[in-house]
Write a structure and sequence with these properties.
Elements: E1 2-7, E2 11-18, E3 30-37, H1 39-50, E4 53-62, H2 65-76, E5 80-86, E6 92-98, E7 104-109, E8 131-135, H3 137-140, H4 145-157, E9 161-165, H5 176-179, E10 185-186, H6 190-197, H7 202-209, E11 215-219, E12 225-228, E13 233-236, H8 249-262, H9 267-282
Parallel strand pairs: 1-4, 1-8, 2-6, 4-5, 8-9, 9-10, 10-11
Antiparallel strand pairs: 2-3, 6-7, 11-12, 12-13
Length: 290
């Protein structure tokens, strides 16, 4: 069974399912729940649920009840947690507003995720034949960037394959491509691909990115996903689903795709596996498997 190391963020999500539009300066009733979150932690949890790989999570939490609870939940889900504990910063927390149609808007406080450092990446996890997946938030934050770039470099030196998810269109600049250098696979969504290339058409954006990376997968939400190596292009449709909460759907897609790829599946089958897990995710409250 292939070892997959996921490096990046762990968050606690405070999810508000809105009953209608926000009412600035007044009240908008909502159903509020607490869920595990953070792109890297979500990918690791969905990988464990997929059962085809051994996921390990490298991240940083605060020395607080939120961090201890989050750690316990991930371990119970089958994730090998390699979490640094920061004595000063709290565990990261994200306010997630879910509109009636399922679309979500996030307001994150990174907290202890900023404290992730090079010494927090266990050397025994980076082994030949394994795979490293980096959630882009770790590259986007200046404080955790050295840990992420060092892990990519060490993984390449030790014969691991590497994937990177840019994570946030709102935080991206084209300079991100240099930070992700060394990745075998880049996994942007359509908005992130546009920011990185200036191309609104996702197929053109994917081919442009394939000039920098051996393989590119662009997720398209309700329209599915595409894969390209710059020469060939494969596109699949999303599975029909009535979305309850789209939080974590992209992370579930990543987990499904990686599990299939590492099991020997080709591009089309890997995209289909990612779409299957994403369809499950949008029918599940919160960002993790139910």
């Amino acid at each position: 069974m292939t070892r997959v190391v996921v490096l990046g963020d762990l968050m606690v999500d405070v999810v508000a399912h809105l009953g209608g539009p926000l009412a600035p300066g007044s009240d908008a009733p909502a159903r509020i729940a607490f869920h595990g979150g953070g792109s890297a932690a979500n990918v690791a949890a969905w990988l464990a649920a997929a059962g085809a790989v051994r996921p390990a999570l490298v991240a940083s939490v605060g020395d607080d009840e939120r961090g201890r609870s989050a750690t316990g939940a991930l371990r119970a889900a089958g994730v090998d947690t390699r979490l640094a504990v920061d004595p000063d910063l709290p565990t990261g927390t994200c306010i997630v507003l879910v509109a009636p149609g399922g679309e979500r808007t996030m307001a994150p406080d990174a907290g202890a995720n900023r404290a992730l450092s090079e010494v927090d990446v266990p050397g025994d996890l980076l082994e030949a034949g394994g795979h490293l997946h980096v959630a882009g938030y770790a590259l986007l934050r200046a404080e955790s960037r050295p840990a992420a770039t060092a892990a990519i470099g060490q993984a390449r030196e030790r014969g691991m394959t590497v994937s990177v998810d840019p994570s946030s269109a709102a935080l991206l600049t084209p300079e991100f491509l240099g930070l992700a250098e060394g990745a075998d696979l880049l996994l942007p969504n359509a908005g992130e691909a546009e920011v990185l290339t200036g191309e609104r058409d996702p197929e053109r954006a994917g081919r442009a990115l394939a000039e920098r990376f051996p393989e590119v997968v662009v997720t398209l939400g309700a329209e599915g996903a595409l894969w390209t190596d710059g020469r060939e292009l494969v596109r699949v449709d999303a599975l029909p689903a009535d979305p309850l909460d789209t939080t974590g759907a992209g992370d579930a897609f990543t987990a499904g795709l990686l599990a299939a790829r590492l099991g020997g599946a080709g591009p089309e089958a890997s995209l289909e596996a990612g779409c299957r897990l994403a369809a499950e995710a949008v029918r599940t409250p919160g960002a993790r498997p139910g």
